[in-house]
Amino acid sequence: xxxxxxxxxxxTRSPLSIFIVICLCCFFYILGAWQKSGFGKGDGIAVQxxxxxxxxxxxxxxFETHHNDVEIIEPSKPKAKVFKPCDVKYTDYTPCxxxxxxxxxxxxxxxxxxxHCPREEEKLHCLIPAPKGYTTPFPWPKGRDYVHxxxxxxxxxxxxxxxxxxxxxxxxxFKFPGGGTMFPQGAxxxxxxxxxxxxxxxxxxxxxxxxxCGVASWGAYLMKRNVxxxxxxxxxxxxxQVQFALERGVPAVIGVLGSIHLPYPSRAFDMAQCSxxxxxxxxxxxxxxxxxxxxxxxxxxxxxxxxxxxxxxYYQTWKxxxxxxQAEQRRIEELAESLCWxxxxxxxxxxIFRKKANNKNCRRKSANICESKDADDVxxxxxxxxxxxxPEVNSANEVAGGELKKFPERLFAIPPRVAKGLVKxxxxxxxxxxxxLWKKHINAYKRNNKxxxxxxxxxxxxxxxxxxxxxxALESPKSWVMNVVPTIAKNTLGVIYERGLVGIYHDWCxxxxxxxxxxxxxHANGVFSLYQNKCNLEDILLEMDRxxxxxxxxIFRDEVDVLNKVKxxxxxxxxxxxxxxxxxxxxxxxxxxxxxxxxxxxxxGNSTSSDQ
Length: 612
Known about the structure:
Layout: H1 2-36, H2 42-52, H3 99-102, H4 142-145, E1 146-148, H5 156-160, E2 168-170, E3 173-175, H6 187-195, E4 207-211, H7 217-222, E5 228-233, H8 241-248, E6 252-254, E7 269-275, H9 287-295, E8 296-305, H10 311-314, H11 322-338, E9 341-347, E10 350-355, H12 416-419, H13 428-448, E11 459-462, H14 469-474, E12 480-486, H15 493-498, E13 502-506, E14 519-525, H16 527-531, H17 537-547, E15 548-559, H18 560-570, E16 575-581, E17 590-597
Parallel strand pairs: 4-5, 4-7, 5-6, 7-8, 11-12, 11-14, 12-13, 14-15
Antiparallel strand pairs: 1-3, 2-3, 8-10, 9-10, 15-17, 16-17
Organism: Populus trichocarpa (Western balsam poplar)
GO molecular function, one term: methyltransferase activity
Family: Belongs to the methyltransferase superfamily.
């Protein structure tokens, strides 16, 4: 009975169930037709979201300068970690050359002025603020002679170096008359005298090193003669000298000849100078002069102006005895001869020496030859009082290491290190292909940012320079490029110098040897793929923000997965970002991320963007 009753009940309800199902089907059919007609919003939203995920469709970035005061609107739920501004006391923060840390190290051999980076727990995780009133530097060439006081608000050099014409304060700007300690009448006249001995005008001399550069007026005035000088000076009581140099638009780094090698390859510079740099050349068995010899190209020139040259005139001013100064000069000349240098000129305050083109022409052999097999392996390596051996030659007329073309021809000529197979994996053919590739990349960059190649970007950094193809494709009197070769990458810096470009070794797990806000444009090709398992990517990005000027630009070129990590961190750094496909299309896994740093200054809430 029970089973029969249940069966009858099921038959009674079955038509009703079927009717309900039919009604529901009709309802959803009518609803779908209504949305399809255009009155529904679901499809429109879906289409809009699909468009927003296209990596090519973003609001255009504005690369012009603004300095607008815009209220910062804090998001209620930030999607990324938001980095707060550092205290204004860190406005000129240089992580590896901070004064308090420096004073805990020995003063012997200037060790305390060398790089001493903070430990992991001491690193800042905030954004370095610009000083109040900061504005875009004057465009080159006006920027060579004028700097906004608000950008580098330090007047001490205007007093200390007043009679030497280093810098003058006028209204709200600093003026740089082009003077120096040993050329108070101007760098032009000084360089003219050098050019009477050194072939500066014909392209034979392209790269130069200024040891103890002051505000780098020598390098600034060499630029119009198509000579690119790398200048360095310590962060010491001569307040902000390197900062002034970079603010003027001149290549410079914080550095010192101390106990470790200079961060440059062997045979890099066509010319080097010490203009009253006060480096004790005769001390430590001539170790400092031997380091200059390492980085000086065969056939290159070294200029010494200042003590002890012209000691007969200045011994009382220098408060030293005649015998002491005479002995010092004699010792320097003996060292120079042992290094296979020849004195070519001495008149007034200037002496000029020339390094022989090879060892076959040396009058006397150096007894102490360096044992290191790699003269370019110098990062944090201690200097020794020994002579770096030159590559062997077959005849007395041959240039050790290979002869270079005159600039600008040498920019795209096959560098000797490549021609001789000294860079593993690089051939003449691959070098030429690299040049073609970077010309293509630069053209793509310029299509998206018309200001690239103009004076808007004067100081440019390539964080992973490779063979220097990026800098070569950009070469112009309007800008210069600091070519950085990471210490964990293939060592190509010697090739870069052979092309007539300048650069430096660096480990991006540490702070760079420069002041904040010293670069207009930073190029990061493959940097984050290189370092993603070596150190914290956040630290590298914060360092990039420190050295990038307000409203400066960064172009990242890397694998898409890596750039997504970078973009997420950048979202909390007051950077406006835009992701783009590779110029060969969306199927290429390498992408491009373009960044513009917002304008803001310490102690205020102003910014060029409210999208925080």
